[in-house]
What we know:
415 residues; alpha+beta; Creatine Amidinohydrolase; Creatine Amidinohydrolase, Chain A, domain 1; 2 domains; six-stranded mixed beta sheet; four-stranded antiparallel beta sheet; 12 helices; 17 strands
Amino acid sequence: MNRRNFIKTSGAATTLAVLAPGLTFAQTHTMPLSSAGKLFHERIRPITAEERLQRQEQARKLMRENKIDALLLEGGTSLRYFTGVHWGRSERLFAMILPQKGEPVFIAPKFEEGRAKEQVGTAKLYTWEEDQSPYALIEKILKERGLLSGNLGIEESTRYFVAGNIQKEISSLQIQSATVVTAGCRSLKSAHEIELMQIANDITAEVFKSAVLQLKEGMTEVEFGKIISKLFSESGAEGGALVLFGEAAAYPHGLVKETRLKPGDVVLIDGGCSVEGYESDVTRTTVFGKPSEKVKTVWAIVHKAQEAALKAAKPGVPAEAVDAAARKVISESGYGPGFTYFTHRLGHGIGMDGHEWYYLVGGNKRPLQTGNMFSNEPGIYIVNEFGIRIEDEMLITADGAKLLLPQAVSLEILF
Length: 415
């Protein structure tokens, strides 16, 4: 399964499982995943309409501070975040315009009016026929609000042809990126968002602990990936994982070539699921059978690097300093300098998308803020041998930072 092909979910549970190839699921679990999933499902509280209105007000605040008169959002994650509307993207424009002053309005193809009304409720909906231009409709909407010469913020994932056609239709309009608004809102997680992400992480931990007990000599990475997906399904979730065996783990996202599991191989599992749209992203690296001394040593270095990053992360600290703290441990342990063996940044933001603003990487001097959520995922990758990565979601709190899951205990005990 593709590393980022994590869909929607409802639940799972937490127990402790020690990796011992040959043990069965029944020998180490006291509760089926389906029953555990029900317990997690009972914890889930969907995001409310009131919360989305509060998000719109926060967006307006940031718009005022940054002199943006209106915000345009196509279908996608940010539209779901602010409105709860789920809409795919095609050549036919569906969008929302959120003015700094006044209520949001939606634009939809006329033949989709019924489906659009289902989702936008009582909000103002403008429609356009197949032989009409949605961009002329945008001009009409902005003219009604006296914004033809205003500043229009475009959500950063909006397709080029949409922004280009708007500018062509309304030459007096000033168009700019709205990242300062969308990232400004979405990168700061509320208590409710953190709660949903915690459930997604709890589900992932339980599935991983169950999955490693089903490793068998000769199985392929794809076969093990299917087991993981099935375990997510049994827990009431839909999720998946990138699976890498042996030398393939020396490449952070693997190779096309399929690898079969053999004794002594490193097993890297990187995956998760989502709860009410909020993602988990967890990596654990273990060994099938007896680990070599080198594997144990490298795993311990990566573990220490994750701890160093966790200790360095706190409000006001530049993002690059957290990456540097982990990289320093790895480099001083003989696996440097720079990106020689630790070949990627330390982490990425995460929330409704698996990768979001901002990034824990050299050159990013942006100070961390309370409510930011990042992956903390140091790694060492030795080509033609193996790779080790440990990844957890890390929340920035007023007092520092914390991981959503217990840090990996050892190669054998994953949580």
